[in-house]
Amino acid sequence: MGVSIETEASAVDVAELIDQIKEEAIKVYFLENSNDFGLVKQITSATGAQPGG
User: Fold this and answer.
1) What whole-number distance in Å separates Cα of residue 18 and Cα of residue 46?
2) Under a CB-based contact definition with an 8 Å cutoff, are residues 51 and 32 in contact?
3) How many CB atoms lie within 10 A of CB 21?
4) Nearest 5°: phi and psi at 50?
5) Nearest 5°: CA angle at 3, between 15 and 35?
6) Cβ–Cβ contacts within 10 Å for residue 35, how many?
7) How far is CA 42 from CA 6, 13, 14, 34, in A?
8) Sorting pLDDT into bands at 50, 70 and 90, what band is 1?
9) How far is the C-alpha of 25 from the C-alpha of 35, rounded, in Å?
10) What is the largest CA-CA distance in the chain?
11) pLDDT of residue 10
12) CA–CA distance, 39 with 28 (Å, rounded to integer)
């Protein structure tokens, strides 16, 4: 799922991403050029998946 780095991810985008990670039992996810460490923490906390790279 792509979230543009040029705009801030909406709450709906983040919720959909979290749901997808859970549904697909993803263990590691990668963010490209993200400086939003709050988003990384939120995804990790909600899914148990770890950021990679």
Assistant:
1) 7
2) no
3) 20
4) -105, 145
5) 95
6) 9
7) 19, 13, 9, 13
8) low
9) 25
10) 28
11) 84
12) 15
Partner residues linked to 30 by β-bridges: 52
Question: Cα dihedral angle (10, 17, 30, 41), rounded to 10 degrees?
Answer: 70
CA distance 33 to 12: 21
For CA atoms 26, 46, 22, 31, the dihedral sign is negative
The token duo for 48 is 């148990």
Among the residue ranges 8-12, 17-21, 43-47, the one predicted with the least confidence is 8-12
Task: State residue 11 phi and psi, 5-degree precision.
Answer: -60, -35
Extract the tokens encoding 11. 């709450």
